[in-house]
Amino acid sequence: AWLVTLLLQHPESLRQAQAEIDDTLKIGEVLDQEKINQLAYVSWAIDETTRIRPSADVQMRTVEEPLSIGSYQLPKGWRVIVNAANSHFLPDVFKDPQRFDPLRWSPERGEGKNPFAIVGFGGGVHKCTGMNFAKNEMTVITALLLQQFDLELRSPEVRVIYGNGANHPSQVLVAYQRKGIA
Q1: Which residues have C-beta within 8 Å of that of residue 162, sequence separation ≥ 6?
Q2: CA–CA distance from 83 to each of 23, 26, 34, 121, 125 (Å)?
Q3: Is the pLDDT of residue 124 over 80?
Q4: Smallest Cα–Cα separation from 54: which of 160, 164, 127?
Q5: Pairing relation of β-strands 58-62 and 67-69?
Q6: Which long-range contacts (CB under 8 A, 24 or more apart) does 9-16 make?
Q7: What is the dihedral of CA 146, 150, 180, 31, to 10 degrees?
């Protein structure tokens, strides 16, 4: 939901994603892994959505062995909170962090190369085991949706709903029309 909403809120990003999908996946063609792998801009938009709107913006972990972070010493057994809602917007990691900018993930720019820059799926080598499935799922839904439909955002304001479970957007109204129908 966030990926589609953010693309609709940013027409230039939507145009770039749409152009890539149009070039890769013609109407009526089957979406397979080879085509998914060609959707670089869509993949970058997913990473940017994960950065700006992480489903898990706060995570708690237990320190398993004494740990030094800067001048701080964390003893074994302490609980640590990792806050994606703040860390994903650090200006020393991400240029213009408040801006939705999928191109920040392109090889030319490569922001956020640190394995802990994005922690919505966890960080380092122990990220969520479902992360790749979730990214593939987002790619498939977005590619097929934009392959087959023209979309228009009808909600004037979309905000984050916090609470139990994953953060999600407030009600989002989208008008859609199947492509090829006048």
Answers
A1: 57
A2: 38, 41, 35, 12, 18
A3: no
A4: 160
A5: unpaired
A6: 9/100, 9/153, 9/158, 10/100, 13/45, 13/100, 13/101, 13/102, 16/41, 16/102
A7: 10
User: Residue 49 above 60 pLDDT?
Assistant: yes
Q: What are phi and psi of 39, to 5 degrees?
A: -90, 65
Cβ–Cβ under 8 Å, residues 77 and 62: yes
Evaluate whether 152 touches 8 at the Cβ level (below 8 Å): yes
Strand segments, DSSP code E, in 70-122 are 72-74, 79-83
Q: CA-CA distance, 63 to 75, in Å (whole number)?
A: 7
Is 131 strand, coil or helix?
helix
55 and 167 in contact (C-beta within 8 Å)? yes
Alpha-carbon distance of 33 to 143, in angstroms, equals 12
* Between residues 152 and 113, the one the model is more confident about: 152
Of the listed ranges 28-32, 109-113, 122-126, the one predicted with least confidence: 122-126
Higher-pLDDT residue of 84, 39: 39
